[in-house]
Fold these 4 entries.
Entry 1:
Amino acid sequence: MEIRLFSPADAAQTADVIAKTLRVCNSRDYPPEMIEENIRTHSVPDLIRLSQEGHFYVVCDGDRIVGCGGIAGYWGSLTESILLTIFVLPEYQGKGIGRQIIETLEQDEYFLRADRVEIPASILACPFYQKMGYTYKNGVTSPDEEGCVRMEKRR
């Protein structure tokens, strides 16, 4: 497995990874219309924009993209950052790829400059992020109106 910075040529394949992961892994926690809306907000142009606003990485198994993750400043802050768009194809989960993505993001300059890093997590992902040292923001363990559970790590 190789992890590298995203390029615009990766956008279509990355969008497919996100769509498949959402439909397969998140369908038990979220209604279909919420999953489809989430897929729409991770379109090719959205992913290209994300890569321009922060740092976005892809994980490749040969020529195949199997995972992704990004980090950016949190609402323009220099002391807070946010992890975004972290997905691993269902058939590649449980193989350490998610950990590799988080470790890469935690070595990125956006992470290193931050006092606090937030992640809008899916319900399913919360135990994984806890293992990676993230805690529930303000102790809130339930999803917000966007369906995300807000987690954070303070440095």
Entry 2:
Amino acid sequence: EPGGLTLYLAFAVLAIGANLTTQEATVRTAPAAPLAVSILAGTIVGFVLKYLLDKRWVFRYESRSRGQEARNVVLYGAFS
């Protein structure tokens, strides 16, 4: 089984790919939208993917409540 660091790095590469793919798809489907919209969409998709993968496979963590999950997302984002 791959170690935590290996998974973390692999998930970072996947998140970057998801971010760039989302940006490209946004530009192609909504060419009139400003560049900032595609960057925001890509950032959100990449962040959510990375958070979920890290939570499950790197940290093996389960939140006990929605409030705890929300705090974890904010902390994860703040330290990202």
Entry 3:
Amino acid sequence: MVGCGWYGKCDLLQLINIEPVEVVALCDVDSKLLSEAADLVQSRQASGNRPKTYGNYEDLIAAGGLDIVMVETPDHWHALPMIAAVNAGFDVWVQKPTSVDVAESKAMLDAARANGR
């Protein structure tokens, strides 16, 4: 997951509650928020594993080993990590609204279609 703020944690914890997912990595520019989210996820997921943490979405994506990337950043930061993730071959879930304008949303849609995501 990219973006460990309130919305991100709410969405991720609900997913953990309804599906047997393994959260392997979290990303946020705020190191305190990131560490707190990693501790919370570790306490909630069945495996008890602590997700790896990244301060930059590009590092998270480059590390690989992901099935899906959740983009939970503020709206004005949705496009870049989403496009990078689909370009790397990952499926992506993006919190709404998808972006701040139609041009960004179209670029996101074009990237998803070009990569079969």
Entry 4:
Amino acid sequence: YYSIMFIRTTIFILLTSLTVFSQTAKNLTKHNSENRYPSFSPDGKTILFESSRNGNWDIFLINEDGSNLRQITKETSNERFPAWHPKGTEIVFQSDKSGSAELFTMKINGSD
């Protein structure tokens, strides 16, 4: 009896959690391209991600509410797998602009 009650309670909690999630999910990118590998900035205010919206993979930033979308890489090569530096001032990513996949860093404003 206790096992059944525990299972029923667990299922109820899971279903309730899924219902809350489905009601609060919001599409931030609103584009027909593939958008991958989202990563929140250390302060939680900005999301870094890769997108194929321009015909190759580039890295973009967007505010956590979906506003202020900006492209930070603009190469004809593929820039992929972005990740935040712990301080939130730089990112690291993979690019094939030198002919093979290598790691690069840059400031979040697209410089250096």
